[in-house]
Write a structure and sequence with these properties.
7 helices, 25-stranded antiparallel sheet
Length: about 400
């Protein structure tokens, strides 16, 4: 009896393995057929619609396809020729590596570009190919890598590599990064950016509806950006970063946007007055929270950018002011800090409707008195803009349409 059970169990396992293998082989065959059709139809089922392709030297194998492809972007801009390898299956991958192209290489030489080597990888599932046109966005991963290259054209610029990734699905993720970029014109100081990074995550279903002309709403999203150190003739800082999150708010059908920012060791006459004896700024950090964002308000903001540039700022200010006065929007600073010579000042408060009053913003400023030289602090206290509380100085700031006060003393 025991032997019979083992035989039955073994047979069941064998059938399961055979079935899985059969599904896998069918997946390879089906995906391979899709690639073969794509190659005969300008590769449109593999690459984004903005890029057209001419496929040559196509070798159709069962487990892999080899070919060369010449890419052209919109407006007929040549992107050169790549040697390609496709590996079909339930999850299909396509890799394109830069190949020699006399026409494109000549364009690079005229532009002063040397060392261009890049690679594009695309992966997608067979299921998504068959489900094209459904409401759910397809799951596709696109990766582009650029090796270090140099541009010599009236000066020299060099980028130490670049990486771009795009992932679609229920969540769309975009990221880009580069370790260093330096550019120098003859006789001029170099401009240098290091550790550049950007990422964005958003609801892919809403984005997919928008791309297909459907009715959409705001989508939960997050964005991050960082760069530094940065050096230029009139600008230098060690690090700058900002992150933005858009999430459902407390009120129904409203959203809250949270912005965190950080600027480390800035030194720039273009950004700050000469500090002289005041010293140097160590950092500027803060968090801004915008409550009460709605799809309608976002749409009003979006429409402004279709107006002439000369009037955009006027309309943006008007929309923002009306949204605050109506109680629709609240902007909070929670808090913002500035460090000077190792001493930190803090500002927090909010801009919101004050029950029909003209006042729109109230803030509280607090800092150790030693953040500034004693004579400057004493002068501000004597004028009433600051008041002492122990070893600190504080001030309550009020902003309205036609006036502003610090510690009750008018400042405009």
């Amino acid at each position: 009896m025991e032997g019979t059970t083992k035989i039955a169990a073994g047979a069941a396992c064998a059938l399961a393995v055979a079935a899985a293998g059969g599904c896998w082989l069918y997946g390879v065959h089906a995906a391979g057929s899709v690639l073969d059709r794509a190659a005969l139809n300008d590769f449109k089922d593999v690459l984004p619609a903005e890029i057209s392709a001419r496929v040559d030297n196509y070798e159709s194998g069962f487990f892999s396809k080899r070919f060369s492809v010449t890419l052209t972007a919109m407006n007929g801009i040549s992107l050169g020729t790549f040697s390609g390898t496709a590996r079909p299956g339930m999850n299909t991958t396509v890799e394109l590596k830069r190949a020699a192209d006399p026409v494109f290489d000549g364009m690079l030489q005229q532009a002063g570009i040397t060392g261009l080597k890049d690679e594009l990888k695309v992966s997608y599932s067979l299921w998504d190919v068959y489900q094209a046109g459904a409401e759910s966005p397809p799951s596709i991963h696109v990766s582009y890598a650029l090796e270090p290259l140099t541009v010599n054209l009236g000066g020299q610029c060099r980028m130490e590599g670049f990486q771009f990734d795009l992932e679609t699905g229920d969540i769309v993720s975009v990221s880009a990064k580069s370790p260093s970029f330096i550019c120098q014109a003859p006789g001029q100081p170099a401009v240098k950016f290091e550790n550049y990074g950007f990422s964005l995550n958003t609801d892919g279903r809403e984005l997919f509806k928008a791309l297909n002309g459907g009715q959409t709403q705001l989508a939960q999203s997050s964005m991050q950006f960082n760069v530094g150190p940065v050096e230029a003739s009139g600008l230098r800082f060690e690090d700058f970063s900002v992150s933005v999150r858009l999430e459902p708010g407390k009120a129904r059908d409203s959203w809250t946007e949270t912005i965190d920012f950080k600027l480390i060791d800035p030194a720039s006459p273009a950004l700050f007055l000469e500090l002289g004896e005041l010293g140097a700024i160590d950092h500027v950090k803060g968090m801004i929270e915008v409550e009460g964002i709605t799809a309608q308000l976002a749409e009003r903001f979006a429409q402004v950018f279709f107006l002439p540039e000369a009037v955009q700022s006027v309309y943006l200010t008007s929309i923002l002011g009306n949204a605050i006065k109506s109680g629709e929007l609240v902007i909070g600073v929670k808090p913002a800090t500035v460090s000077l010579n190792g001493v930190e000042a803090k500002l927090e408060g909010c801009i919101e409707d004050q029950a029909g009053k003209d006042v729109l913003g109230r803030f509280h400023l607090e800092s150790p008195a030693k953040i500034l030289p004693a004579d400057i602090i004493n002068d501000l206290v004597d004028q009433g803009y600051l008041r002492r509380e122990g070893d600190k100085v504080v001030s309550d700031l009020v902003f309205a349409s036609h006036y502003g006060t610090a510690n009750g003393v008018k400042i405009y």
